[in-house]
Amino acid sequence: MKQEDALAQQVVEHMMRHDRFSQWLGIQVLEIREGYSKIQMTIREEMVNGFGIVHGGISFSLADSAFAFACNNRNNLSVALDTSINFTKAVQIGDTLMAEATEVHNGKSTGLYHITITNQEKEIVAVFKGTCFRKGKKLVDI
Description:
Layout: H1 3-18, H2 20-25, E1 28-33, E2 36-42, H3 56-72, E3 78-87, E4 96-106, E5 110-118, E6 124-134
Antiparallel strand pairs: 1-2, 2-4, 3-6, 4-5, 5-6
């Protein structure tokens, strides 16, 4: 494992230990590399909205966690500056969703990330774009 990927892994492990919301979602971290993350979760009954489909905020939250793990894993505290999501397919109870965040731009003060969310059938259910602002502070002391 490359040194920068080992740091990325350590930062995300720290984030997950303190991220109660991602824990509540049931997020599992599958892969972390510098500027990249892949995570997954399984949809539960309490995530359904009044229309009987999964609340869009659940898919958004999964993507937002993948975004946070990718843009913070260089150990430079980064916060969301702008995000957007497009929903392409309804999500159902029991679906397993995977969010894959890839870095498009890594600047000194901003970063741009694309996150694709797929279900267990590898169908795209949502596409998320996030821009982060880099605060220049460390998340973990190394």
